[in-house]
Amino acid sequence: MSIHSPVTVTVPATTANLGPGFDCIGAALTLYNKFTFTRLSSDTPWETERAVRIRVSGIEANQVKTDETNLAYQAFLKLYNQIGHTPPPVQLKIDLDVPLARGLGSSATAIVGGLVGANQLAGEPLSQTEVMQLAIALEGHPDNVVPALLGGCRLAVRGDAVLKEWEICDIPWHDQIVPVVAIPNFELSTQEARQVLPNQVSRADAIFNIAHFGLLVRALATGRGDWLQTALQDTLHQPYRQALIPGYEAVQTAALKAGAYGVTISGAGPTLLALVDPMQAEAVVTAMAEAWQEVGISAIARSHSIDTQGTQSAIAPAI
Ligand SMILES: Nc1ncnc2c1ncn2[C@@H]1O[C@H](COP(=O)(O)OP(=O)(O)O)[C@@H](O)[C@H]1O
Ligand SMILES: N[C@@H](CCOP(=O)(O)O)C(=O)O
């Protein structure tokens, strides 16, 4: 069997929405999934039956599909379809550190990992912007795939008659604002968490979110932690999703009591995100994990940094 150079794609987790920025803003975190694609020649027996062989390791590995319906492989196929080439048979190794269906962008890592891996194997026919557009189309919203691909905190604005394509803005994030995530041991799929949202909102709610989003962006840029509790308030998704997250109130209260600037749902949940001063990070981590424990739910809490690199790919020497 001849095996070509493996391509390893490392994709960061994300925390999307950041309160009032529903479906628009997200930040990459220093927590990663790895996707390694190895193109195989078509002269081996198993390859005549199956186009892909998938191995998954790391946390919750047994929950990830290992057949053709795997999301990273579907994204891989999408890119080949887009460029009009027949996808080669591949071996895909996935190493997981991002927990599934917790609001930390695991699906975004799979989509970005599959697209970038395919683009590399195909000799980079698509630009990063074209890959990003495919990723947004596959995920259905930009706020996790864009920071996963580009790193940092990113605002995505849909194109219109003037701006033909998505406009992506880098949102400055002050180094004295630390993200703490508290991840409970139950899943909440993004699909389920979107089903509870109303299709229409009132003018008052729209104005509320516009004002709070402006405050959020200024607070993140300037390090005005005292603005964050207010700035993270939202009327578009959080009021409807809280009921899907047992322990929400208790964990939020505990984090604020321990000194967090503010608390919000990470992505579609159930992970809760606290923004904190670096000196308070440890106390907030402990308080959030304990508060969840007290309502009978085990949880892992930890602080991260904002990943500024985005998705990285590396080609290993041919075996
Ligand atoms: N590494 C992966 N490989 C393949 N599929 C994945 C991977 N990570 C996540 N997924 C798919 O995405 C689903 C979770 O997506 P979603 O509900 O949007 O949650 P999240 O908030 O983690 O993105 C998983 O149930 C799985 O089907
Ligand atoms: N804006 C989306 C974000 C989903 O992010 P994820 O990390 O939960 O996939 C939403 O809130 O539905």
From TrEMBL:
It catalyses: L-homoserine + ATP = O-phospho-L-homoserine + ADP + H(+). The keyword Membrane does not apply. Pathway: Amino-acid biosynthesis; L-threonine biosynthesis; L-threonine from L-aspartate: step 4/5. The keyword Cell cycle does not apply. Its EC number is 2.7.1.39. Transmembrane segments: none annotated. GO terms for biological process: threonine biosynthetic process. It is found in: Cytoplasm. GO terms for molecular function: ATP binding; homoserine kinase activity. Residues 70-152 form the GHMP kinase N-terminal domain. ATP binds at residues 99-109. SUPFAM superfamilies: GHMP Kinase, C-terminal domain, Ribosomal protein S5 domain 2-like. Keywords: Amino-acid biosynthesis, ATP-binding, Cytoplasm, Kinase, Nucleotide-binding, Threonine biosynthesis, Transferase. InterPro entries: GHMP_kinase_C_dom, GHMP_kinase_C_sf, GHMP_kinase_N_dom, GHMP_knse_ATP-bd_CS, Homoserine_kinase, Ribosomal_Su5_D2-typ_SF, Ribsml_uS5_D2-typ_fold_subgr. Gene3D superfamilies: 3.30.230.10, GHMP kinase, C-terminal domain (3.30.70.890). Residues 217-292 form the GHMP kinase C-terminal domain. Pfam families: GHMP_kinases_C, GHMP_kinases_N. GO terms for cellular component: cytoplasm. Catalyzes the ATP-dependent phosphorylation of L-homoserine to L-homoserine phosphate. Belongs to the GHMP kinase family. Homoserine kinase subfamily. PANTHER family: HOMOSERINE KINASE, HOMOSERINE/4-DIPHOSPHOCYTIDYL-2-C-METHYL-D-ERYTHRITOL KINASE. This is Homoserine kinase. It comes from Coleofasciculus chthonoplastes PCC 7420.
